[in-house]
């Protein structure tokens, strides 16, 4: 059965060896096929295709034999032989110094949960748009989730270019998405004035102070958790928001965006909550709000939801919505009362008011019936000359 003269031969009971010359070197590679007559013929055809690729300068050793030690020897770029799972692990370790803990943990979940299981055995240079599209088209996730997965892969491959592992980023300027059905209902579901009153009636002490302050400032839960007394300016009547803290972060980090660094006006409801809270944590000089069960800073939104929020809504018979709806409630109250959208945007930490108008538009009052009349009075209507 030996066909050594044709460049193929049985190497074992389960493999066939192919030999060929490449760049002046005799190369021998094994393929996992039982050396039957039919398989030896397939091996000959495979070898013929290799020789043709070599003759036409289109042979890629790492793609043809990715696990071969010769692949490294003949590699044009290091990315031709480095597995993506190896590179992603190194890349993720290097990113730790530049990312917030919560962001790095989010990257870690996507790398370990999706990218490595899906593409880890491909080389850095081998992965392309087709691989990503084929995998993502069957994933039951929103386009936002798919975009997050691709964003991390895109960033990693961009760094691979800078590390000279590959010549270009195959995902630059490209993002796969699926056609999504419209959402059945708006995710923004604020609490009414009556519901707010019921929730607060079923809370006492630090718990009531926290939730009342949330309703009247529109601050994110992560910002409330990180808030300290030196962030409160009672003289000017503002709270300075510059930090946030999540379950993943062990210490306070910067806000979600640069625009998130802001001053929030202390309206009467918020000021009242702070005055009541002073008796609990003022003397510590650190965090404003504490978990009454531990007498320490809240460890994120989950403990608030599990030990305080859910209980208060259930006891009061209020339809459940997650705590973040206190932020939406604040926005809807301000806009419904006629506050200027730009002012509301600044209070909530948005760069401009367009998002406020787009998301909370239905709570903005209709235009004044007299709108435009003042301009007519000031500038008048030009008369048409009579001839």
TrEMBL record:
InterPro entries cross-referenced by the UniProt entry: DNA_brk_join_enz, Integrase-like_cat_sf, Integrase_catalytic, Integrase_recombinase_N, Min27-like_integrase_DNA_bind, Phage_Integrase
SUPFAM superfamilies, A to Z: DNA breaking-rejoining enzymes
Domain Tyr recombinase residues, every copy: 186-375
PROSITE patterns: TYR_RECOMBINASE
Coiled-coil regions listed: none
Record key words, sorted: DNA integration, DNA recombination, DNA-binding
Pfam family, any one: Arm-DNA-bind_2
Recorded family membership: Belongs to the 'phage' integrase family.
Protein name: DUF3596 domain-containing protein
Species the sequence originates in: Massilia frigida
